[in-house]
Amino acid sequence: MKIILLITTLFCIISFFAIGKELHIGEGQPYSNLYQAVKDASPGDTILFHEGIYAGGQNISNFQGNESKWITIKPVDGETVIIRGGNKAWQFSSASYIWVTHLIFEQQIGNGLNMDDGGNYSNPGHHLKFTNCIFRDMIGTGNNDLLKITRVDHFEVNNCQFINGASGGSGIDMVGCHNGLIANNYFENMGSNAIQAKGGSQNITIEKNIFVNAGNRSINLGGSTGLQYFKPIDAPFEAADINVYSNIFIGSQAPFAFVGCTRVKVVNNTIYKPNKWVIRILQETVDESRFVPCSNNYFQNNIIYQSNLYVETNIGPNTQPETFTFSNNFWYNYQNNSWDGPSIPVTDSIIVINKNPLFENPESNDFNLNKESPAIGIIENDSIPKTDFYGNRFNNPRSAGAIESGNPVSTDNNITTNKLPKLKQNFPNPFSNNTTFEYFIPQSENETFVQLRIFDSLNREVAVLVNKKMLPGNHKILWDRTGFASGIYFIVLKTKKYSSTKKLIVCKNL
After folding, report:
1. Are 264 and 297 within 8 A, CB to CB?
2. Counting C-beta atoms within 10 Å of the first and last residue's C-beta, which end of the chain has fewer, N or C?
3. Is the CATH number 2.60.40.1930 carried by domain 422-506?
């Protein structure tokens, strides 16, 4: 009896810690496409693509992992995998616990990657994660989205790139989605929007992203949705409880459009040279018996660096702009020294008008504040957001804008007193031309072998800056990004005993 119990116990332990199987896709592999591999996949498995270009157009239904065993879809480490063409690259209906990472989606006609509930309102997609992917070069020119998410709950889009969207579409389009995080992404050359959340979307945080010429409305907070697509079906708003924190916006017709939304918070963002407006307040879905008007939204702690615009706030009918809260915003018109302030619908309780925020080098996309900036340490008692564009904690009092430049609270900034090797956040970052890395080797390492390498967002090595023995102390090195495309990169410091990684943002010259 004891032997049987022991065998049973060992079997349970082995089963609990068992690693799922790998399903390989590619030339000479057991599977030639995703659809084939999915049929044999189980919770906890990893679907591995080998180097190559694969045709889009795969439709997958009810593909599900579970809470403790997600299914991962990724390339073999270090290999480049492109999903090209098709009306859609892939369409997942009612998927759950799926992680898609390090893949390129390009040149689709309809949408790039499409995640939805398959028309089954009672069986939404949920727990989906997209990391380190590139969505680019949409062929469709209408309302075509690089990433389309319809009636999906609990999702994350992190460290992805969205480049060259359709003229009438979005980078990320959400309809009836809830409990999401969109963070640390790069958007460039979008059409209508970089991000759109509508159809009853709620409880979504959009933070630490960078938007470069990201469409007519960089973020469309709400929109216009057919009644049958709302979730819940009787939602009284297009969007609610959306948080837009610590982002950088460069260009676009209008960085923000509040459209039939409520309880939306736009806080501690940096807005640089919008083309036409800063904010639009609109109501495109009108039904007084059901929908609340666009109302009770917040615009706080932002830096706006602008020219002579049409008007700062464009207000449409059927809205309640008088219910908005504007506070602690830092407005600067670089074209007009005598400018007397923005046109906004309510009084900004603590407004700063026409003082230069003193960005370090905005023409090279460096939006750190000079130590003499009047935007440093001017806002007291605000608790949200907790962290800035780099992930450093805001001070109290905090700075306006996306970057806390007044001695942010971060263990990464004081590298000379640490007993471990340390890679400091590069400066500038974001940047257009070149940037400087500072790193520290402690006395405990003596003379040690040091590697400083740069990887792109797909985990491919693109540059080696250091590969030699080095003495203890502080070190600096310059990286010239000539020949490298805009987007997300990572710098990795590695010694015999330690490694550290920081994110880089390369922007095109504007």
Report:
1. yes
2. N
3. yes
